[in-house]
Amino acid sequence: MSKNNDVPQAYVKQEEGYRIKALRLYPWVCGRCAREFEYSNLRELTVHHVDHNHSNNPEDGSNWELLCIYCHDNEHNKYHEHIMYGGSTTDRKVEAATHSPFADLKAMLNKSK
Ligand SMILES: [Zn+2]
Ligand SMILES: [Zn+2]
């Protein structure tokens, strides 16, 4: 890999590798609403994993899609509905949400009595 790319070095350091690769590979345009991005608002352009598996990062970019944060949200809302109706996922966020969040709450309520 050469260093001949157009992504600022400071940016490269703080982002995950696949994001940088995707930004090099694809034009900075949202794949849903076609909004265009530049350095100043690049924060709002996110890399979506087409199969929702964040560890599936093929070098050819076939599992990546650049989406603005709004369209990305929509994409994930759809996916979560799918899960509720019997799909399955390895998504970490979902695991965190199902990790009995009320156990601690109950303990707190008992204490405050
Ligand atoms: Zn969009
Ligand atoms: Zn995504």
TrEMBL record:
It holds the Pfam family HNH. InterPro entries: HNH (IPR002711), HNH_nuc (IPR003615). Keywords: Hydrolase, Nuclease. It comes from the Bacteria. One of its GO terms (cellular component) is cytosol. One of its GO terms (molecular function) is zinc ion binding. The keyword Nuclease applies. Residues 19-73 form the HNH nuclease domain. Belongs to the HNH nuclease family. This is Putative HNH nuclease YajD. It comes from Pseudoalteromonas arctica.
